[in-house]
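Box 3.1 A note on notation
Throughout this textbook, protein chains are presented in two layers. The first layer is the amino acid sequence; the second is a token string describing backbone geometry. Keep the layers aligned when reading.
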Amino acid sequence: MEIFILVAVCIIVLILFLWLFPIGIWFQALVSGTHTSLIQLVFMRFRKVPPHLIVNNMIAATKAGLKLSQNELEAHYLAGGRVGSVVNALISADKANMNLDFKTATAIDLAGRDVLEAVKTSVNPKVIDTPPVAAVAKDGIQLIAKARVTVRTNIKQLVGGAGEETILARVGEGIVTSIGSAISHKHVLENPDSISKLVLTKGLDSGTAFEILSIDIADIDVGKNIGAQLQMDQANADKNIAQARAEERRAMAVANEQEMKAKAQEARAKVIEAEAEVPLAMAEAFRNGNLGIMDYYKMKNIQADTEMRESISKPASTQQTKK
């Protein structure tokens, strides 16, 4: 039993020793021509840096002819960087004769960009398809264009430079400007390369992480007749305004007519009221002696003569209607 416990303790101690002293990794670095000490590998354990990650990337860099410092790789790992991606990017850039140093590569990686993908895109440009862009020519016809933008990564502008979204936005703006300045949509359909030439002259890749190599118009479709639609909408709006103003005038005329009728009725009422007071005034005149019997008969004769003249002056059709 004691022997079994002793063997178990020895095995545990051996495992801890091999974990603390990564002899296999140290020997791998030694035979690969990468200088590192076993003590440094032990210190990596205490610094919470995986020795195999640092050593494997140092071996890959050494075999590729690059000289990288172990302290720089550890510092980049502790800063949260991707050591493997940075080393592979440096190797790819060296093979492609690109001027990319370790400081720039780590800065790009810590900025959140994929430095290896950037190097690949710089060597092998990629194509970005723009979404459909709608614009209206001067003749009022809408055109819907799609473009393919070929870009190459600009390593120097990768840190702090704008991304693909800015490229797409600027290209879309350039397409809208180019189509909008065309006199006729037929001219754009006949010469789609005029859009590419105008957009390329604007320097759309300024301040971005990419260099625009070419802009090709992949497709152009004819959309709506926006000019005619706007004219129809304006005509409908003018018609509605005219109808509203006519309705307003009609309402005012009706109100004036009602007001005039009310005034006429009021006037007739005053006349009837005044006529009703005539007999009273005549009775008062009789009592006061201001009106005699002969005067009264003369007034009646005058009224009779007036009514006779009015009846004679009226047309015959009016008299028959009354009968």
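The beta strands are 126-129, 133-136, 141-153, 210-225. The two ends are 151 Å apart (CA to CA).
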